[in-house]
């Protein structure tokens, strides 16, 4: 059994004009696929074959297998990122909206925090909206770092590796982050993650 390479949850051109089909063809079709292919090559014939991607990520971190961690965590992060975006404008509602108001003061303040964290993150990495014991916060991780292994619940993530935006925006990360936060974040996905018992699981 191998780790799946999941399709995008929308058409390749569905996020235009904010993220182009060209970017998704490269980012999903080449970068994400390469991470999955490397995981499958690494686990073939080992006790990890047939394990879930979440189990592989935890094993790689615990055993200090940096190469396997990088590729498995990046596979997970990317699938979570695709689902964190939506071509249809969404808005927080219900328990998530109440938690945002409680912990950030307003949705606008949360968006500002997300933008500041994503834009100011140095070099490659990820900006996250997470929950721990029902309380929301914004965090960031470097390189392949993932909040999956941090004992907290990821709700949304923004990819700030250059390959997420360079084709469309060159070095203008702030323009990409503004577009994601203002127009593409999938608040329905965040609400589902906030309500679920455990954490989101990678598609089998």
From TrEMBL:
Family in the record: Belongs to the iron/manganese superoxide dismutase family.
Organism: Sphingopyxis soli
InterPro entries reported in the protein's UniProt record: Mn/Fe_SOD, Mn/Fe_SOD_BS, Mn/Fe_SOD_C, Mn/Fe_SOD_N, Mn/Fe_SOD_N_sf, SOD_C_sf
Alphabetized UniProt keyword annotations: Metal-binding, Oxidoreductase
Positions of the Manganese/iron superoxide dismutase N-terminal domain: 5-86
Name listed for the protein in its UniProt record: Superoxide dismutase
Catalyzed reactions per annotation: 2 superoxide + 2 H(+) = H2O2 + O2
Alphabetized Pfam families for the sequence: Sod_Fe_C, Sod_Fe_N
Gene: sodB
Domain Manganese/iron superoxide dismutase C-terminal: 92-192
PROSITE patterns: SOD_MN
Gene3D superfamilies per record: Fe,Mn superoxide dismutase (SOD) domain, Iron/manganese superoxide dismutase, C-terminal domain
Function description: Destroys radicals which are normally produced within the cells and which are toxic to biological systems.
Enzyme Commission (EC) number: 1.15.1.1
Top-level EC class as recorded in UniProt: oxidoreductase
């Amino acid at each position: 059994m191998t780790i799946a390479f999941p399709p995008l949850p929308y058409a390749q051109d569905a996020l235009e004009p904010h993220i182009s089909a060209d970017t998704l063809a490269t980012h999903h079709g080449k970068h994400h696929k390469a991470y999955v292919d490397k995981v499958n090559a690494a686990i073939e014939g080992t006790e990890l074959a047939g394990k879930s991607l979440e189990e592989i990520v935890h094993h790689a971190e615990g055993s200090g297998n940096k190469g396997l961690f990088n590729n498995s965590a990046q596979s997970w992060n990317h699938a979570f990122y695709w689902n964190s975006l939506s071509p249809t404008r969404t808005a927080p509602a219900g328990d998530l909206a109440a938690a945002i108001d409680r912990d950030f003061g307003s949705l606008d303040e949360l968006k500002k925090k997300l933008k500041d964290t994503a834009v100011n993150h140095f070099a490659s990495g990820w900006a996250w909206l997470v929950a721990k014991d029902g309380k929301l916060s914004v965090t960031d991780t470097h390189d392949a770092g993932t909040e999956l292994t941090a004992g907290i619940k990821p709700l949304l993530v923004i990819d700030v590796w250059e390959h997420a935006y360079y084709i469309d925006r060159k070095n203008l990360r702030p323009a990409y982050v503004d577009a994601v936060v203002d127009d593409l974040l999938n608040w329905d996905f965040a609400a589902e993650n906030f309500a679920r018992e455990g954490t989101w699981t990678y598609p089998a």
